[in-house]
TrEMBL record:
Belongs to the sigma-70 factor family. ECF subfamily. InterPro entries: RNA_pol_sigma-70-like, RNA_pol_sigma-70_dom, RNA_pol_sigma70_r2, RNA_pol_sigma70_r4_t2, RNA_pol_sigma_r2, RNA_pol_sigma_r3/r4-like, WH-like_DNA-bd_sf. Residues 132-171 form the RNA polymerase sigma factor 70 region 4 type domain. Residues 28-97 form the RNA polymerase sigma-70 region domain. This is Sigma-70 family RNA polymerase sigma factor. Keywords: DNA-binding, Sigma factor, Transcription, Transcription regulation. It holds the Pfam family Sigma70_r2.
Amino acid sequence: MIMQHQIISDATLVSSYINGDESALEVLITRHKQKIYSFIYSKVYDRDVAEDIFQDTFIKVIRTLKRKAYNEEGKFLPWVMRISHNLVIDFFRKNNRMPKFDNSGDFSIFSVLSDNNLNAEKRIIKEQVENDVRRLVDELPEDQKEVLLMRIYKDMSFKEISDRTGVSINTALGRMRYALINLRKIIEKHNIVLTN
């Protein structure tokens, strides 16, 4: 029985659950619990809080699925991770503390900027984040700022950046790396939350 579950895709399990098979949800939770719980714990460093947020995440998942409002075709885990990420942010807002997001993994500050299907409220938040990011970028040294803007906002390759700026590709890569390291430092210094 267990072996069978390994090969059933998340999407199939989700639709089984929506169509009344309660056990399908259990398989999904079991399959992803470790990854989701670890992510939450890495932000809150408190087992009880992490448990609560984990539970809340799946309450939200269940409600959304029951309302048949889920449409993230085959992207079940990223969707659940986004829900848990938002609940972590809510937890910190309520407690006036701010989580540490290292901007690696799935929640790069720039992924917020490229999310196009946003409602009005999220659009305002997105504009706010864009303004914040622009202000942060302005604090970078000129050479790092130049590479970052070309890469992120103009979508240029490092080869194109190298040609445009007259430095080697390695130098361009180095400047980009330092720009991101410095951005992180600036974000931590100002205790800024960038989230969608």
